Amino acid sequence: MTDGTTNTTHGARDHARAMAGTVVETMPTVPAAAWPAVPEGVAAEALTWAEVVAGGNYTNKVLARGTTLRLTDLGGDACAHVLLFNADQPWERLNVADTVKIPWQAYLGAGHPLLSDQGRVLATIVADGSGRHDALCGTSSRLRNEERYGDGEAQGPSPAGRELLLIAALKQGLGPRDVPPSLSFFQGVRVGDDGALAFEGSAGPGRAVTLRAELPLVVLIANVPHPLDPREDYTCSALEVLAWRGAPSAPGDALWSATPENERAFLNTADYAMARGL
Description:
Layout: H1 9-18, E1 47-53, E2 57-63, E3 68-73, E4 80-86, H2 96-101, E5 113-115, E6 121-128, E7 133-134, H3 142-149, H4 161-170, E8 183-185, E9 188-191, E10 197-201, E11 207-213, E12 217-223, E13 239-244, H5 260-276
Antiparallel strand pairs: 1-13, 2-12, 3-11, 3-13, 4-8, 4-12, 5-6, 6-11, 7-8, 9-10
């Protein structure tokens, strides 16, 4: 017998079973092949990740080498704070300083390699319809969110990006010491002539940025307001995340020879992949 509530084990079980098949706006689609709007030119069975991440939430996934990862700002107020790790040896991780230094470019865009601390390319930005990104500020902290919004806990009304990235990291066997500064997509920052940082905001809803995994990756994403967002309210819209199987870049790709630094980083990546049989 159940009383129709979740106050008992049987009631909780019946409630959980009754929720089967429920679809809401922000949730993963499992299997990913059931995603209703498969990208043009992509077979449904090639999809490996399909999810809509609510503002103030996070997600994480392990992706195979060569996977294409597309992030879309659905409402114009998403801000995807992204961390990447080599899935085979996660002590190798995104290094934002090298990601800026090696291409001699502080502003992210199509063709930009995302470098690890081992001089290898973890992923490449292969397409960019936004142009509003940030490699300088990192994500928000609990203390800063407490000062701005009154709360910064992961389960609170205004979770900080670092708190959410820490939870995502724990789900991949990583800890606080493994979480470095992140990259931010869809909310731009520029540096003025006086060295001051200026918040540019979004390029509008529906803009997408596409990455290609050059090594097997652990991907962590927190979708939270940018720390320089001047709005008083905690404002962040939904983020669409799609990934599908593909192939990594190879010799002859224009990105390899774009600069001597690019070529060395891609050669380092290819050398590692060959030695590992990837």
